[in-house]
Amino acid sequence: MKSKVRILIFLLVVIGIGLFWRRDVTPYLPPWDETFENGMLIKQRFSRFAEPFLSANYNLSEDNFNWWKRLQAEKRNFTTYRNKVDRMFQMFPASAYVEASSPEHCRTCAVVGNSGNLRKSHYGPRIDFQEFVIRMNGGRTKGYEADVGTKTTHHVMYPESAVDLDNTTRLVLFPFKILDLDWVTKALSTGFSGSSYAPIKSNIKANKDLVMVLNPAFMRYVHDVWLQKKGKYPSTGFMTLVLALHICDEVHVFGFGADSDGNWSHYWEKLMNNNLKTGSHPGAEEYKIILDLAKHQLLKFYTGW
């Protein structure tokens, strides 16, 4: 009898540890497969990145700042960056809200890129079926509902790609320079009057209580670990996809890659340049990684054609 009791207690302890591990560790840790490409490489890619978002208490290292400032030739110093971050969190929540993982709740996400391969895809209902729908930059739904859906819970942007949002959608800022931190603070309050390499909206409509700001160190993690430093820096789309793998349990990916003619176009635009590629982003390498992730069932990829 005593041995049976000991076995029962042991099993309860094992189950309890399993539940604790899933609840407290896996929010940023998707599954990985030792047979996927190089087992150690994919294990490194899926290592838990503790803070994908900036918070009022997070201190970016000067080394990561120096990497980040080279993305767009930022000339201002680390002290200026820290002052802008402090000011930003006087307006926005001190930390980004991320839905916690639990055994009872599978967080499903649709990451919706802007590729022309979404045209005539009829993916709209599949996209809207997911709990969270993450769109980015100029991605729009009006007039394209059948192919891209209508639902948006998170919208990724930076100043030069900003769009107005409704009161329930989370603005997810991907900052590439100090100006971006200044912009999001002023565009939601007094108005922004600076300039950049492209026109910037002085004011935007969004709920300031739902703002989330990507950690520059996370950008470096994606570039160094996921892309093995290929290209100048990752595309917004690829960083969004890796972010989704950190904050979702099940990821569905739409609108990534070239169209059927090999052009990297947007679904809402009439293509004028028939040899449009991906600029400084390693598009081919990013696409290969997405295909590998889909092959090993670490995400579901909808090619569109």
From TrEMBL:
The protein's topology relative to the membrane is: Single-pass type II membrane protein
Top-rank taxon of the source lineage equals Eukaryota
Residues annotated as binding substrate are: 72, 114, 137, 197, 233, 237, 257, 266, 281
Localization recorded for this chain is:
Golgi apparatus, Golgi stack membrane; Secreted
GO function term, MF aspect, one:
beta-D-galactosyl-(1->3)-N-acetyl-beta-D-galactosaminide alpha-2,3- sialyltransferase
Cystines in this chain:
109-248
Q: What is its EC number?
A: 2.4.3.2, 2.4.3.4
Catalysed reactions listed for this entry = a ganglioside GA1 + CMP-N-acetyl-beta-neuraminate = a ganglioside GM1b + CMP + H(+); a beta-D-galactosyl-(1->3)-N-acetyl-alpha-D-galactosaminyl derivative + CMP-N-acetyl-beta-neuraminate = an N-acetyl-alpha-neuraminyl-(2->3)-beta-D-galactosyl-(1->3)-N-acetyl-alpha-D-galactosaminyl derivative + CMP + H(+); ganglioside GM1 (d18:1(4E)/18:0) + CMP-N-acetyl-beta-neuraminate = ganglioside GD1a (18:1(4E)/18:0) + CMP + H(+); a globoside GalGb4Cer + CMP-N-acetyl-beta-neuraminate = a globoside MSGG + CMP + H(+)
Q: What are the GO BP annotations of this UniProt entry?
A: lipid metabolic process; sialylation
PANTHER family associated with the record: ALPHA-2,3-SIALYLTRANSFERASE ST3GAL I ISOFORM X1, CMP-N-ACETYLNEURAMINATE-BETA-GALACTOSAMIDE-ALPHA-2,3-SIALYLTRANSFERASE 1
Q: What is this protein called?
A: CMP-N-acetylneuraminate-beta-galactosamide-alpha-2,3-sialyltransferase 1
Per the UniProt record, the source organism is Zoarces viviparus (Viviparous eelpout)
